[in-house]
């Protein structure tokens, strides 16, 4: 079995967790969601961490969580804000292939209905569109491969992840 990790990055609603778990099954790999580890370590929901401790604390704690990972042969679904930390992205890149699940802004908005409770890092005074425009080049920078997911079903995105992982 290939021991390389497959790391999924992308906007909120891009399907990192949903498609990641299915891709892991197809690839005979483990599945790991960094948001779940982060919540477990903090003993709070993501939105509560942001509300109670602020965005700077959230990003620093997320970075600590990512840097603590020592896994292989795993499909890793990351939090959408992971790209704010070069240290985190370098750590992830050392362990595998980074796949960016790309969405248009309109598709992202259509998919995320729980923006105020989801735990999305949007800087004070910024709009969701500002966050999108800020993150997009960061995702592109770190990606080994980009999958455009706007018109994909979950199954189509999973198939593309599996194909990319097997290359």
UniProtKB/TrEMBL annotation:
UniProt EC number: 2.7.1.71
Q: According to the UniProt entry, where is the signal peptide?
A: none
Question: Pfam families, per this entry?
Answer: SKI (PF01202)
Co-factor binding details: Binds 1 Mg(2+) ion per subunit.
The metabolic or biological pathway listed in the UniProt record of this protein is: Metabolic intermediate biosynthesis; chorismate biosynthesis; chorismate from D-erythrose 4-phosphate and phosphoenolpyruvate: step 5/7
**Binding residues annotated for Mg(2+), in chain numbering:** 17
What stretch or stretches form a coiled coil here? none
Show the GO MF annotations.
ATP binding; magnesium ion binding; shikimate kinase activity
What keywords does the record list, in alphabetical order? Answer: Amino-acid biosynthesis, Aromatic amino acid biosynthesis, ATP-binding, Cytoplasm, Kinase, Magnesium, Metal-binding, Nucleotide-binding, Transferase
Name a biological process GO annotation: aromatic amino acid family biosynthetic process
Query: Its principal location?
Result: cytoplasm
- Tell me which family the UniProt entry assigns to this protein: Belongs to the shikimate kinase family.
The protein in question is named: Shikimate kinase
Its gene name is aroK
